[in-house]
Amino acid sequence: MGSPVSPIIANFFMEFLEQQAIATAPIDCKPRYWRRYVDDVLEIIKAGQVQNLTDHLNTIDKTDSIKFTYEEEKEGKIPFLDTLIVRKPDGSVKLLVYRKPTHTDQYLSFKSEHPLHQKMGVVRTLFDRMYSVVTDETDRANEEKHVRGALKNCGYPKWAVDQVKSKCNLKQNQL
Questions:
Q1: Residue range 110-134, pLDDT digits in tens
Q2: What Rg, from alpha-carbon coordinates, does the chain have?
Q3: Residue 71 vs residues 6, 53, 120, 140: alpha-carbon distances, Å
Q4: pLDDT in tens, 8-30
Q5: Domain extent for 24
Q6: 163: which of 11, 27, 30, 82 lies 20 to 30 Å off by Cα?
Q7: What CA–CA distance (Å, rounded) separates 124 from 77?
Q8: Are residues 126 and 170 in the same domain?
Q9: Any domain includes 105
Q10: E strands within 62-163?
Q11: Same domain, yes or no: 160 and 89
Q12: 24 and 107 share a domain?
């Protein structure tokens, strides 16, 4: 830990570990879909096989220093990173921004002594996330309302939010 190569070595190790785990997984719990970002994994497996796969994953690391845990889909929803994946009745999915239950919407106060470009960067980050994650227009409008309310509570004036949103809209139209 602390060495600049630590994240690279950790990623190589996790890649090695997951390749071994998937290759040796029993057929009844072999994932149909597997995506990992650092130490978070999103997988699709047969119903009722989550514990079996977790037990298998926890046998792969012979040092016994890596332990896999899981979170199951609840009411057709599962979080992955800052995205909430929602299964729609027709079987398709939509994506929303996910905030943990302990999230407080506390961002850099506009009244702080930070340079203006850093404050505008907070707004830009929240709008960029909204545009890149949220897939449905109605949900995007709800997310924008949420972001505007959170920023208002942190002292951001309407002009600052509108200015950044205008630039984000231009960027979206160019894509």
A1: 999 999 999 999 999 999 999 999 9
A2: 20
A3: 27, 12, 35, 26
A4: 998 998 999 999 999 999 999 99
A5: 6-72
A6: 82
A7: 27
A8: yes
A9: yes
A10: 77-80, 83-87, 93-97
A11: yes
A12: no
Tell me, yes or no, whether 42 and 88 share the same domain.
Answer: no
103 and 150 assigned to the same domain: yes
CA distances from 59 to 26, 68, 71, 79, 143 (A): 12, 10, 19, 25, 41
Q: Are strands 40-44 and 33-37 parallel, antiparallel or unpaired?
A: antiparallel
3-state secondary structure of 79: strand
Q: Are residues 55 and 87 in the same domain?
A: no
Q: How far apart are CA 13 and CA 19, in angstroms?
A: 10
Query: What does the chain come to in residues?
Result: 175
CA 50, CA 43: separation in Å to the nearest integer?
A: 10
Q: Report, as ranges of residue numbers, the positions in the chain whose pLDDT lies below 50.
A: none
Q: Does pTM top 0.90 for this prediction? A: no
* Domain count within the chain: 2
